[in-house]
Every structure is written in structure tokens, then in C-alpha cells.
Design brief:
Blueprint: H1 3-6, H2 23-33, H3 35-42, E1 46-47, E2 50-58, E3 63-69, E4 75-82, H4 88-103, E5 112-117, E6 121-127, H5 134-141, H6 146-165, E7 168-169, E8 178-181, E9 184-187, E10 194-195, H7 214-218, H8 224-241, H9 251-260, H10 271-280, H11 291-295, H12 316-319, H13 325-337, H14 341-346, H15 355-371
The structure holds adenosine-5'-triphosphate (ATP).
EC number: 2.7.11.1
Enzyme class: transferase
Protein name: non-specific serine/threonine protein kinase
């Protein structure tokens, strides 16, 4: 295959320096010498091997863009953080986010491909979820039917179960961090996640107020797992009703409502689902349903709970010596692109901060999606982000104004 087929932006066909080079070498050459590539980088239209294609949105700490890898042509989401605005605390959160994402391997969790650092910015290259957020879907089309809720919720529960089995707690589960890739659910945004053992007491207060468990407001310490379980209860309530169980116009009043703990569930919600919500939203953390009993509940009977993926190498230099067929096939693809064993070994020390790691992970994921039906992108979509979801105007959830207002604001210390 020629470079013209491979690269989304091609170089000067008459440039003799491109002759006899592999696609990888050509791209590296173009990035360093071709005026168009250099200009793209200056205009923030390029980040390393990725060409920026558009905005996906802006969060509290970052901007997220859609981009295409020039070598593999796969779409990715790039979360961009401004280093000048990062204090010690946010740097710590970022390194935890990277660590947590590398620790989980599940079909319902967004994958981390690469981290690219420049003088001023950090770029986190992630699996792209093309079909928008659960939040946008509900605020646009209204509550979900229970059948759809059951299928979506079981995927979310599987993902959280896997995190907890790996001793990772998320601490920011909410509809804005649940994405669709086709009909498949992808849990993302590990910005507040933490490695935490069973029984470990935590004291940093993270998350979004409407999803915060009562102990976050009133106790000095909390156990991470129970906070995630509470957030699942809020999320499920929101999915089946389209409104939030605890509503107020200030964080102070909201805090009071949550500590008070009284909420009503509309009568159209089935008894089995009401049972789940009431038992997830128990004031006392230890009385909340466990993920195990949730999976075995009547309401989720017959649902599929996607299993974690079998173990695979995350680093190309480990894959060189792996007996796994997925890894071997991926290395073969990399070699065809000109990413030789020598190149792979040279990048070894850079770990996730290397474009070779990015290409390896993207190609491995692509291959796995082709090979395993439970990973394949389901193209039957309810709405395409490309046409609607990314440009949705934020709407109001029963008293909570949208994303832009402070009720959605993440606070790391809840007063
Ligand atoms: N992997 C992804 N694939 C597709 N879109 C994404 C991905 N990650 C984030 N986005 C989109 O990018 C936008 C910004 O995301 P980000 O997580 O930074 O902010 P947020 O969730 O709106 O706010 P917060 O700062 O509270 O997390 C959102 O609209 C989100 O849907």
C-alpha cells in the first residue's frame, strides 16, 4: 500500500526524500520537514501523528477534540489539558487517570491509546465514542424505556464491577461520562478515579454534587466503592425518569436534600426497578446493594453482563515477545507500516508517551474489534454525534440547568 493510501494528509509527491521510505518513516519525515504539516502543528490542527478534525466539547479542566491518526486512519478523541493551569493536585489526578485506564480492560470502558506532551499542553488520546453521551440522549429525547435501561445499565454495572474487581474506583459516574459507541455503552472520564483497596477510607471529596452520596457531605471519611454504588442509583433513576431524584437550585440546598435522603419514584417505574433504586440509594453505605446482587436481581434477569477482556500486552515492546496471537498480528501490521522491532525497542522507555504505543494500541483494538463480535462497533445507532449530539444545545433537567451552570460543576472539595 502506498503512502497516499495510508496517510490522511499526503506530502509532496515530487519530494525525492519520500522515496524508499516506509509509511512510518515518511510520516516522521513530513512532520519534521513538510510546510503543511508544520503549519498544521502551529495552528493547533495537529498533535503528533493525529490530525485534529473538530471539537467534541469543553469540560471543566479540558477541551476534547476529534482527530484522526495519520498512519492508521482511526478516529480518536483527544483530551487537551493546559499545563500552565495544572497545579500539583490536578497533576496527581492526571497520573491516576492514566494509571487507572491502563489497569482496566473491559469492552464497556473507553480505552487509553497514548499521552502526548508538548511544552504547554498534555494530550490524552482516547478511544472515540461516536454516538454521544447518555446525558445528551436523555435531555434531548427524554427518559429511556425500561428495556433499553436494562440493557444499558447492565453494561454500566459490568464496567463498574470490573473496575472494583481491579480495585479502581471511579468517583465520577454520571450520565455525562457514559458514552455510546453504536448501541454499546462506554464508561469514560477517569479523571477522579483512584486505586483503593476494600475497606480503605478516603477523604478527598470528588464528583458532581447531584451524584454525591450523603457520606461525602457529612462524614470525614468514605469508602470509594459505596460512593460509586450510590452514583449508580442516581444514574438509574435519571435513566428511567429523565429527572434527578434530588433537586435543588443551590449546592447547599441539594446537600440538605441528599443528607435528608427522601425521594419519590414515579409510579410508571416498574416495582423491580424501584426496588433496585431504593436499595442503591440507601443512606447507610453498607446497606446498599452490592454489584453482585445487582447482577442477580429480578430486574436485570436475562441481561448480558459483558465480561472483561482476556489479558493482553499494552506495550508494543512487550508484544514483541508475546505468544498471544492478537499481539503477534498487531506487530505484523506495525512492521508493514514500517514500525520495525528496532523502532519499537527505541521507544520502550517512553511507555504510554510514545506515538509507537499509540499506533500499537489503536491497531490492536482495531484487530480485536474485527475478531471478537462482542467488541465490534455496533453500527445501529440511535443518533449520530456527527450530525446531532455534539451540537446539542444543553437542556434543562428538572431544575438543573445544563452543563454550563455550576450544578454540573465538578468539585474536588465539597464544602
Ligand atoms: N472518548 C470520547 N469520545 C467522544 N466524545 C468524548 C470523549 N470524551 C469526551 N468526549 C466529549 O467531550 C466533551 C468534553 O468532555 P469532558 O469529559 O472534558 O467534559 P465534561 O464531561 O462535559 O465535563 P467535566 O469536566 O465535568 O468532566 C463532552 O461533550 C464529551 O461528550
Amino acid at each position: 500500500m502506498t503512502l497516499q493510501h495510508r496517510l490522511s494528509v499526503v506530502g509532496d509527491e515530487n519530494d525525492p526524500n519520500l522515496d524508499n521510505k516506509t509509511p512510518y518513516e515518511q510520516l516522521v519525515y513530513l512532520l519534521n520537514n513538510d510546510q503543511r504539516y508544520l503549519k498544521e502543528a502551529t495552528l493547533n490542527k495537529r498533535v503528533g501523528f493525529y490530525r485534529i478534525r473538530g471539537d467534541l466539547g469543553t469540560g471543566n479542566f479540558s477541551q476534547v477534540k476529534m482527530a484522526v491518526n495519520s498512519l492508521t486512519r482511526e478516529r480518536v478523541a483527544i483530551k487537551i489539558l493546559d499545563k500552565t493551569k495544572m497545579d500539583e493536585k490536578t497533576q496527581k489526578l492526571l497520573s491516576r487517570e492514566i494509571k487507572s485506564m491502563d489497569y482496566v480492560k473491559h469492552p464497556n470502558i473507553i480505552r487509553l491509546y497514548e499521552v502526548h506532551e508538548t511544552l504547554a499542553k498534555i494530550h490524552i488520546v482516547l478511544e472515540y465514542a461516536p454516538n454521544g453521551e447518555l446525558f445528551s440522549k436523555i435531555t434531548t429525547f427524554g427518559k429511556l424505556q425500561e428495556t433499553e435501561c436494562r440493557s444499558n445499565f447492565s453494561q454500566i454495572v459490568s464496567a463498574v464491577s470490573h473496575m472494583h474487581d481491579r480495585n479502581i474506583i471511579h468517583r465520577d459516574l454520571k450520565a455525562e461520562n457514559i458514552f455510546y459507541s453504536g448501541k454499546r455503552i462506554k464508561v469514560g472520564d477517569f479523571g477522579f478515579s483512584k486505586c483503593s483497596q476494600v475497606g480503605e477510607q478516603l477523604s478527598t471529596y470528588c464528583g458532581s454534587p447531584p451524584y454525591a452520596a450523603p457520606e461525602l457531605f457529612k462524614d470525614e471519611h468514605y469508602e470509594g466503592r459505596y460512593v460509586d454504588i450510590w452514583a449508580l442509583g442516581i444514574l438509574l433513576y435519571f435513566m428511567v425518569t429523565g429527572i434527578m431524584p434530588f433537586r435543588a437550585d443551590t449546592v447547599g440546598k441539594l446537600k440538605k436534600c441528599i443528607i435528608d435522603g427522601t425521594f419519590t419514584i414515579p409510579s410508571f417505574v416498574s416495582d423491580n426497578c424501584q426496588f433496585i433504586i431504593r436499595n442503591l440509594l440507601k443512606r447507610s453505605p453498607k446497606e446498599r446493594l452490592t454489584l453482585h446482587s445487582l447482577e442477580r436481581s429480578d430486574w436485570l434477569e436475562g441481561q448480558e453482563f459483558p465480561k472483561p477482556l482476556h489479558s493482553f500486552e499494552l506495550m508494543a515492546h512487550h508484544a514483541l515477545h508475546s505468544s498471544g496471537t492478537d499481539e503477534q498480528q498487531t506487530i505484523k501490521c506495525l512492521n508493514e507500516l514500517g514500525v520495525t522491532s528496532k523502532v519499537i525497542k527505541e521507544c520502550k522507555d517512553k511507555g504510554v508517551r510514545s506515538n509507537v504505543t499509540g499506533i500499537y494500541r489503536i491497531m490492536l483494538h482495531k484487530l480485536q474489534k474485527q475478531k471478537y463480535p462482542y467488541l465490534a462497533d455496533d453500527s445501529t445507532t440511535h443518533s449520530s454525534r456527527d450530525t446531532s449530539a455534539s451540537t446539542l444545545s444543553p437542556s434543562t433537567i428538572d431544575g438543573y440547568s445544563s452543563k454550563k451552570k455550576n450544578i454540573k460543576t465538578k468539585v474536588c472539595t465539597i464544602l
